[in-house]
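Progress report, Aim 2. The chain analyzed during this reporting quarter is listed below.
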Amino acid sequence: MKYLILSVLLLTSVIYVNAQNVRFSPSGIIEFEKSINMYALIKKSTDGAEEGYMRNYLDSYKKNNPQFKILKSKLLFSPEKMLFQPVEATSNNNSFFDEPAANQPNIIHTDLKNNAVTTQKKVYEETFLVKDSLRKINWKLTSEVRTIAGYECRRANAIMLDSIYVVAFYTDKIPVSGGPESFNGLPAMILGVTLPHENVTWFATSVTDKSIPDQDFKAPAKGKPTNNKGLLETMKAALKSWGKHAQSAIKAFMI
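Predicted structure tokens for the chain:
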């Protein structure tokens, strides 16, 4: 009986110590990498164009550029606010191909307490200041898990903007409902996002636990004022002559 009691006490102590070592991050900085499969994106975008010319362009691009374009971004987060902003691109891609999905046009300020989002969004040559409520995404949780940036994450799936299939991975060790770009609505922080049919992913590369001063969460203020509905209507009108290419551009800008 004495040995049994000692064993139980020892086991309890081990569990307590392990629990004490679990990292919970209420505030800090997450660094993300956006990866774009340029070969797939160019091929999809040029389907139906002049076959010989576009085949030569894609072949030339493959010879001079890597398959994946990498763009960096960072997310500042706290229990009440978030600020997502792009960092300078690390890829050496130089071409006239300027698909919106291959860029990072957004600076996004999120006020979790008031369910409000302010986005500075560059759409080609014009900049918009989009103010709206948090986007509602109907997630379906799964049992699949994977490790991202040292955190165990659980998978969730959703359809957003009516047609974009989204796979996200979130960790309950960061108890803030947010993520890269406008992805949100899961029980805790999203560290990975995949858009399988759009050839784009976002994955966290590091998480730094630190207190963020309130002044660092400064919302963007430049751009033509609108909301998500207004921006969508503006783009549909401006791109109505683009045919099928308008749809892919609009989806990329609305994410």
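DSSP finds five helices and twelve strands in the chain. The radius of gyration is 21 Å. These observations will guide the mutagenesis work planned for the next reporting period.
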